[in-house]
Amino acid sequence: MAGQGGGLGIVERGLIAARGGTIVYAGPEAEALSFTAPDVVDCAGRWITPGLVDCHTHIVHGGNRAHEFELRLAGATYEELARAGGGIVSTMKATRAASEDELMASALPRVDALMAEGVTTLEVKSGYGLDRVAEMKSLKAARRLGEVRPLSVTTTFLGAHAMPPEAAGDKDAYISSVCRDMLPAVAASGLADAVDAFCDNIGFTPEQVARVFEAAKAHGLPVKLHAEQLSNQHGAALAARFGALSADHLEHIDEEGVLALAGAGTVAVLLPGAFYFVRETLKSPVEMMRRHGVHIALASDSNPGSCPLTSLLLAMNMAATLFRLTVDECLAGVTREAARALGRLDSVGTLEAGKSCDLAIWEIERPAELVYRMGFNPLHSRVWQGR
Ligand code: DI6
Ligand code: FE
Predict the structure, then answer these.
(1) Side-chain-side CA neighbours of residue 90 (13 Å)
(2) CB of residue 272 inside a 6 A radius of ligand 1
């Protein structure tokens, strides 16, 4: 995955050496300096990729929304349920009612499912607390996932996700509390690595999002944005203007938005599981993104409402089948590009000296098998920080 230009940078008969959890050599075995290592693992012809990076999840939350799924099967739409006080707000109630321990315990089986398919870096958003106490509780639970599992966790504060009922529909006042109360407390406690918002007709306007982004910048936190998921609010251009790490979803993005992402180097994170699960019909303009040289990442969007998915392998298959991404784009999308979308390309996402020795070792004969199968896990083993 290393190096510029397209392609996967495949190395046959490769060797990876690590010391203290950091890669010191990755390349052809024949070109490696001779060294003695106490632990040599012969991967016996298997394929090694960077450990997978899931750069967009809402995996910490209370409850589930299986009942809303049944209502949707009976004809209700995702947007109607949200407007009727269900949706994110119903998960908010369950999240507020859960303790930090309970939030962590309920997230662990989902995290384990991702890890079983080779995930070594996981982004986790808050956004189901919607007040200072519950947002901080969620972020603490997220941080602790990385303490109880061999996995790197990055956290994102998503206070501007939806309106809590007590805000009584006053979005500007709620955004003020996000900026003046929640975000400073989150930043001061070091609980978030980035700040996100939901810019949409059922979320917040670009003006409201801009206020959140200004506050994030004032606290030295990078930003990312849920943009153009259900409608085109020109959120991608706003994100680009703030130098966002990523703009995510993007089914409704137009060419102006694509150009803005390209110009700013903001990664487009595609979430095919959410597209599938809410039965969206408009697709992201992938060909236009390619033409303008936008970086494309893929993520699970694991969340109880629009995408109860805990498989990056299936996300890749969906991206290929539904969005016509190539195998190379899918694999780069869950490694190098996902790392870029987290601002972590310096430490993960490719197999290069100086990066964390995070590996996924696969029982496959060619990389396309990782994208082609549905519901089959060919992971042989997983290495995180050299272990
Ligand atoms: N868009 C999404 O797809 C998730 N959040 C967002 O802003 C879904 C959140 C949910 O329905 O619980
Ligand atoms: Fe999301």
Answers:
(1) 19
(2) no
- To test the ligand 1 pocket, which listed residue (57, 58, 110) has its Cβ within 8 A of the most ligand atoms? 58
Which residues are placed with Cβ below 5 angstroms of ligand 2, an ion? 301
94 alpha carbon, distance to own chain's centre:
23
309 lines ligand 1 (CB under 6 A): no
The residues, ordered by sequence, that sit 6+ positions from 210 with a Cβ below 8 Å of its Cβ are: 238, 242
Instruction: Compute the distance between CA of residue 355 and CA of residue 385 in angstroms, rounded to an integer.
Output: 9
Per-residue pLDDT of 95-115, as tens digits, reads 999 999 999 999 999 999 999
User: What is the rounded CA–CA span in Å between residue 23 and residue 33?
Assistant: 14
Question: For residues 102 and 97, what is the distance between their CA atoms, to the nearest angstrom?
Answer: 10
The single-letter code of the amino acid at 343 is G
Which SS3 state, helix, strand or coil, does residue 119 take?
strand
pTM over 0.85: yes
Name, in order, each residue with C-beta under 8 angstroms of 47's C-beta and a sequence gap of 6 or more. 361, 362, 364, 367
User: Which 3-state string (H, E, C) describes 5-28?
Assistant: CCCCCCCCCEEEEEECCEEEEEEE
Q: What is the whole-number distance in angstroms between the Cα of residue 191 and the centre of ligand 2?
A: 19
